[in-house]
Specification:
The structure is a single chain. With 707 residues, the chain is of the alpha+beta class. It is 43% helix and 14% strand. The strands form 4 sheets. The chain has a 5-stranded parallel beta sheet, sandwiched between helices. A 5-stranded antiparallel beta sheet has the order 10-9-12-17-14, with no helix packed on it. Strands 11-18-13-16-15 form a 5-stranded antiparallel beta sheet, with no helix packed on it.
Length: 707
């Protein structure tokens, strides 16, 4: 898997940084996330802007907060006013949006409905983690709040990713210490546990501050899109069991897909994609309760961490137990509102952020707890059941209807899409794979506005124009030159999205356009071949599989499942023997970004390395990838004789080895000469490996093996 074990980079980056600075939304400039998260936080959130007759007016003092509506207030606080601060990350900022068709946010409308003269001051900031949110909370306590609402949990680890300085280094060392104590866990799992522990500690400080100031604090759990957006990563078609499940799923045999994905989940219990597609198969079979369990497990296992997991929401629930503390359980409210109890579909714009149509639902859940915080039980205050509350908000919105200035959903989703494509384009190995999240975004855009998507897919310039909103710097996150860089990979993703939507001919067109830009793009050949299999064109599929310049275990597995393995080997003898990953007499090649040492319990996947493919013992094979380091591994009783290693640029590996259970490892230096390093032979899946440092710009490694 390519993106499975990234640690701090993906743990905080949020597409909310790309949202437009439209009315009612507290948004930072997209290209300035480092400035927003590292520099602007040193400024007061609010600054005095004027004084008259002893009354001081305050306005937002941080650039990213300047676009928020209703964020000006005066001190001293006017009599009879209920002042509520909403703090946190991008989901907090969603509560500042005007209700669809209206000119006021849903929470303000509800406060008026219940008879309050209320100021709802929204301080939600995309990318803010618990530490930054707590800093905002400490500041606002001097402004006479009557309650504070906190939505935070999707952006932890920001300072460990982009912010320099002593404190960030100290926290990083704290992570390393925890990593050492929990060395038996993969680093990315340790990072997630470390950040959850840190988040819980900050929440305790927030609770103590609220109790000391006697200000009610409402913690909110965070809903997530369970059913529509898969975990970050690509389909692990190198694995025969997953490949058989995917082949069955594509063909509509959901019972067979369920069986295969269940087997894969047992075999690879920490791979979220297996659980996610098991959930999809269960949904197709009409078993939503079982599907929800699989989806929740996938979200918990997903180390990208932009979608509050079971553990994350558990931390929030525990934090909300205590005097003057309240819980608005948005996760549960969205579950109850979702068809079949599985949140997704039109409820969300992406993996994390609910759509505007559900602002009323979120506001009603929060207001229910605010009524309690103000000392009025919801029933005594005329509180409405959730469904009736949402209807009341919609009715109030109609009374205050104004022209809607919020950008069209298609443009916002396209901006999310460009963010993910641009981000993934910078990740090692992405250019060899199709990632699931951009593919799903494209499917959603196709259903929402097919004509719009086809129009912006005509050229990089057309896409750039579509995601650049007047008056903001959003396109800085993906300038035109970046869009040009990922363009062939975007076209292949669009081809796959069209294929999944059943538009066979148009999908073929975009795969072909992708290959015109990047003729060696193995994933385009693979997925165009799968497309042709769906259309019943086995001959065309075989042609695509054979034309791929790289020997690919993914291609071999799909070919074998469709009775094309022998024909493929006739056209491409370099495919050699059986491609079954369960065969013990094979070797495996992984790519990674950091050198490894042979610590006890070593396995490349536990250190962020991605499986690039495998081959039978004695088979010379090229493995495509863009890694800094390559690990050649054998397991069970396998023995591999490595004569030489050559990188894609033509250079042979010379002396850059780390070895484990390898005899004469330096014999693999230089060009093939009949002398070999011998890997394995002692048994055990975690022993027998050779690690080589790649030449700069490497696009893969060729392993010269002796019989």
């Amino acid at each position: 898997m390519i993106f499975r074990q990234k640690i701090f980079f993906p743990l905080f980056f949020s597409p909310a940084l790309l949202l437009p600075a439209a009315p009612g939304f507290c948004s930072g400039a997209a290209g300035g996330y480092q400035k927003t998260l590292c520099e602007d936080i040193k400024k007061p959130f609010f600054s005095p802007s004027g004084r008259a007759a002893g009354i001081v007016t305050y306005k937002p003092g941080r650039p990213g907060a300047a676009a928020a509506r209703n964020n000006s207030f005066v001190m001293p606080k006017p009599g009879g006013t209920k002042r509520v601060f909403v703090i946190g990350e991008s989901n907090a900022a969603l509560l500042a949006r005007p209700c669809p068709g209206g000119d006021r946010d849903c929470l303000s409308l509800l406060a008026g409905y219940y008879g309050y003269k209320a100021e709802i001051l929204n301080c939600g900031m995309p990318g803010y983690d618990a530490d930054r949110t707590f800093a905002v909370m400490k500041e606002i306590m001097q402004y006479s709040p009557d309650a504070v609402v906190a939505l935070v949990g999707n952006s932890e680890g920001a300072d460990l990713s982009v912010c320099p300085g002593f404190w960030q280094k100290l926290k990083g060392r704290g992570y390393m210490a925890v990593n050492f104590l929990r060395w038996r866990l993969p680093p990315a799992e340790v990072a997630k546990k470390f950040l959850l522990d840190e988040q819980a500690a900050v929440f305790r400080r927030m609770a103590r501050l609220a109790a000391g100031k006697k200000v009610p604090l409402v913690f909110c759990t965070l809903p997530g899109n369970l059913s529509d957006f898969p975990p970050m990563g690509d389909l692990p078609l190198e694995d025969r069991l997953f490949a058989s499940g995917w082949d069955a799923y594509v063909k509509g045999d959901h019972a067979a897909a369920r069986a295969a994905f269940s087997g894969y989940a047992e075999k690879r219990p920490k791979d979220p994609l297996g659980r996610y597609y098991l959930g999809q198969a269960l949904m197709k079979m009409g078993e939503p309760a079982a599907a929800r369990g699989a989806f929740r497990s996938a979200a918990e296992l997903d180390l990208y961490n932009d979608n509050c997991s079971i553990s994350c929401n558990s931390v929030i629930r525990r934090a909300a137990s205590g005097p003057a503390l309240f819980l608005a359980d948005l996760e549960e409210k969205f579950r109850l509102a979702a068809p079949s109890g599985v949140p997704g579909g039109a409820m969300f714009d992406d993996r994390t952020h609910w759509s505007r149509e559900y602002d009323a639902l979120a506001a009603c859940a929060v207001m229910d707890r605010l009524l309690e915080a103000f000392g009025r039980s919801p029933s005594a205050a005329g509180g409405l059941p959730l469904s009736s509350c949402v209807s009341a908000v919609n009715a109030l919105t109609l009374k205050s209807a104004r022209p809607d200035k919020w950008p069209a959903k298609t443009a916002v989703l396209a901006r999310y899409l460009v963010f993910y494509m641009n981000m993934l384009n910078g990740w090692n190995g992405f250019k060899e794979r199709l990632a699931e999240v951009p593919t799903v975004f494209l499917q959603r855009l196709l259903r929402l506005d097919r004509r719009f998507l086809i129009r912006i897919s005509e050229s990089p310039e057309a896409m750039y124009a579509a995601v650049t909103f007047p008056g903001d710097a959003g396109a800085d996150a993906a300038p035109l030159e970046n869009i040009r860089l990922f363009w062939p990979h975007y076209l292949a993703h669009l081809g796959e999205a069209l294929s999944r939507e059943g538009e066979i001919e148009l999908a073929r067109k975009y795969f072909t356009r992708s290959l015109a830009w990047a003729p060696e793009y193995e994933s385009a050949y693979l997925h165009r071949g799968i497309l042709r299999l769906k259309a019943g064109d086995k001959k065309g599929a075989l042609s695509d599989f054979a034309r791929s310049p790289a020997v690919s275990l993914r291609i071999y597995n799909i070919a074998k499942l469709n009775g094309l393995a022998e024909a493929l080997k006739e056209l491409r003898p370099d495919y050699g023997g059986d491609g079954d990953t369960e065969d013990g007499n094979r070797y495996f090649v992984y790519g990674g970004e950091a050198p490894l040492s042979g610590a006890a319990g070593f396995h490349p996947e536990e250190h962020g390395y991605a499986l690039l493919g495998s081959a039978p013992e004695g088979t010379t094979m090229f493995f495509p990838g863009r890694s800094r380091f390559y690990a050649i591994v054998v397991h069970d009783t396998a023995v591999l004789k490595v004569d030489a290693l050559r990188f894609s640029g033509g250079a042979y590996c010379r002396g850059s080895f780390s070895d484990g259970n390898v005899k004469d490892h330096q014999a693999a230096n230089g060009a093939p000469d009949g002398k070999a390093a011998v890997l394995g032979g002692k048994g055990g899946y975690r022993e027998g490996y050779l690690i080589a440092a790649a030449e700069p710009g490497s696009r893969g490694i060729k392993v010269f093996a002796l019989p």
